[in-house]
Amino acid sequence: MPERGQLIVFEGIDGTGKSTQCRKMEEYLIGKRVPVVRLREPTDGVWGQKIREILSEGRGDVSREEELFWFLEDRREDVEKNILPALNDNKVVLLDRYYYSTAAYQGALGLDSDSILRDNIEFAPIPDRAYIFIAPPEQCLKRIESSRDGYSSFEKLEYLVKVQEIFSSFQGVHIKKINSNSTIEDIHAQLCGDINELTGI
Length: 201
Description:
This protein has helices at about 20-30, 45-55, 65-90, 100-105, 115-120, 135-145, 155-170, 185-200, and strands spanning about 5-10, 35-40, 90-95, 130-135, 175-180. It has about 200 residues and is of the alpha/beta class. Helix 2 crosses helix 3 and helix 4 (about 100-105) runs antiparallel to helix 5. The longest helix is centred in the middle third of the chain and has 25 residues, at about 65-90.
C-alpha cells in the first residue's frame, strides 16, 4: 500500500446503484484486511443535516447560492475531520458522493458547474478514483419509487436528465464511467479488478 491512503468516490444520480457498490467495496476491502473507512455526503454534521432537511422537505426560501454554501461548508468539515485524517492514517476512504455531485446537481439548477469544481478543489483532495455511475434517469426513478416512499426534491425526471448530462461531461485520468445497467455482481467484479490494480492489494 502507498504511504498515503487513497480516496475512492462513488458518484451518480440516485438509483444508479452507487451506494450499493460503495457498501460492497467496503465489505471486499475488509475481507482483504485493507484498512478502510466508508463515508457519505451530505454528512450527519450540522451543515449536512440542513441539506438533508432540504432534500426531504423542499428548498422553501433557501436560494441556490445559500444551498451551495451549505454543501461547501459540510465538505470542508468532512475533509478536515474525516477524510484527511483517514488518508493520513493510510486508510482507503470510500465516499458516497463528493464534489462532483455538488457540481452536477447545483449545475443543473443553473449555477456554473466548472466554478463549483474549482472552488472545491481548492480545499478538498482530488480523488484517486472517481466512479461515475450512468443509467437512464427514467430507470433510476423507477428504482427509487420501488424502494422509497416518495421522491426527494432532487428526484424529478427533467432535472435528473440535466444532472446526468453534467455527470457524463466530467473528464479526468482518475474518472471512470460505470454502466450501471449490468448486474450488481458484474459491476462489483469490475470495480474490484480496478481497485486491485489501483491499490496493489
